[in-house]
Amino acid sequence: MFSLVLALLCFHGVVVTCLNNEGYALLSFKNSIYEDPEGSLSNWNSSHDNPCSWNGIACKEQRVVSISIPNNKLRGFLPSALGSLFDLRHLNLRNNKLFGAFPVELLEVEGLQSLVLYGNSLSESLPNQIGKLKYLQTLDLSENFFNGSLPSSIVQCKRLRTLDLSQNNFTGSLPNGFGTGLVSLENLDLSFNKFNGSIPWDFGNLSSLQGTVDLSHNLFTGLIPGSLGDLPEKVYIDLTYNNLSGPIPQKGALMNRGPTAFFGNPGLCGPPLKNPCSLDTTGATSPSSHPLLQDNNSTGNLADKERGLRQGERTK
Ligand SMILES: *[C@@H]1O[C@H](CO)[C@@H](O)[C@H](O)[C@H]1NC(C)=O
Ligand SMILES: *[C@@H]1O[C@H](CO)[C@@H](O)[C@H](O)[C@H]1NC(C)=O
Ligand SMILES: *[C@@H]1O[C@H](CO)[C@@H](O)[C@H](O)[C@H]1NC(C)=O
Ligand SMILES: *[C@@H]1O[C@H](CO)[C@@H](O)[C@H](O)[C@H]1NC(C)=O
Ligand SMILES: *[C@@H]1O[C@H](CO)[C@@H](O)[C@H](O)[C@H]1NC(C)=O
Ligand SMILES: *[C@@H]1O[C@H](CO)[C@@H](O)[C@H](O)[C@H]1NC(C)=O
Ligand SMILES: *[C@@H]1O[C@H](CO)[C@@H](O)[C@H](O)[C@H]1NC(C)=O
Ligand SMILES: *[C@@H]1O[C@H](CO)[C@@H](O)[C@H](O)[C@H]1NC(C)=O
């Protein structure tokens, strides 16, 4: 109401300075925050003619290019008005208490380069047209309550370098073209979700990946595609706790890893695991039906032995 009156006053030229539209868009963000215990938004008020001096706001040529208010216990939701900040490049609201859905209007901010929302309580599905964000380089949504599948349009984000969706409730399979589409991807963490289906055959085309590629604690099924071995040699692929099966391709980035990258997939077989692939199958389905046999080496180290036993129990 106050804003409206002020806007009317401004319109009639009664007040000399007047907050611009971007300022009002940010004030609707402030209005969507129910709790701001640290007063992070206390200098966000309409007595300025633009928001460029406000806490957490950065401008370029008087246009808002960045909102950065991490770790401030802000409780509230993301309003659609954020979608009218057309020059926004960076939105960082990690580690707050934001809830509700990802506003589809944010996809109108086509120049968005980083979207860092990890450690909130955001929920529901990502909007299907997320691929409209052609300049997106960082999408970090980890530790929220997002569900539904990863929209297939994500493969249009050709500049995406960091994709962290870990610790959410995502389901469904990874979209077609995941490997061939995300040509710039360097960091990938999909752990602790409910992704299912098989690992895309073209995963190995993600040739810019580095560090740990974490697919652990999901529901991926089927064979490990041989193309995973084509990933850069230094990449460490964590496939633990899925439902993968069949032999582990003895190739490139998958070799010399030791068994730890593969635990928790009762159907996997062959080196570096101790349960050999049984000869009477194509190797695609079951590990040896006698997984305990290779664990009779009393001089072997205890940890290996226990793991072998656990694995044996699961495959019985
Ligand atoms: C608005 O901010 C200015 C300083 O930036 C402060 O002097 C003024 O009291 C504030 N007004 C309100 C209504 O908070
Ligand atoms: C995931 O969804 C299930 C219900 O389908 C719910 O019980 C669980 O709390 C959710 N977990 C997260 C992290 O959202
Ligand atoms: C996602 O969670 C919401 C509740 O936050 C629920 O209404 C909706 O059905 C869920 N969608 C899927 C695809 O699981
Ligand atoms: C993946 O899970 C969804 C439910 O979340 C199910 O509808 C779909 O059939 C599953 N797909 C595969 C390939 O298992
Ligand atoms: C994907 O990788 C395969 C095998 O390395 C290669 O033959 C193919 O050309 C690649 N495709 C694209 C689109 O890069
Ligand atoms: C694991 O995959 C097998 C088929 O390979 C399937 O029968 C089984 O239900 C799956 N288990 C889970 C927990 O998804
Ligand atoms: C012990 O392991 C060897 C192979 O290393 C195997 O041939 C043999 O059958 C095993 N013995 C028992 C009692 O499991
Ligand atoms: C038994 O384990 C030791 C140490 O792990 C290893 O050096 C040795 O080759 C193993 N022997 C057999 C028969 O597997």
Describe this structure in words.
By secondary structure, this protein is an alpha/beta fold. Helix content is 12%, strand content 20%. The chain has a 7-stranded mixed beta sheet with strand order 1-4-6-8-10-12-14. Strand 2 and strand 3 form a beta hairpin. It starts with a helix and ends with a helix. The chain binds 2-acetamido-2-deoxy-beta-D-glucopyranose (8 copies). InterPro entries: At_inactive_RLKs, Leu-rich_rpt, LRR_dom_sf, LRR_N_plant-typ, LRR_R13L4/SHOC2-like. Pfam families: LRR_1 (PF00560), LRR_14 (PF23598), LRRNT_2 (PF08263). Keywords: Leucine-rich repeat, Repeat, Signal. It comes from Gossypium arboreum.
Identify the notable features of this structure and list them briefly.
elongated, 4 helices, binds 2-acetamido-2-deoxy-beta-D-glucopyranose, 316 residues, Leucine-rich repeat, LRR (right-handed beta-alpha superhelix), 7-stranded mixed sheet, disordered C terminus, alpha/beta, 12% helix
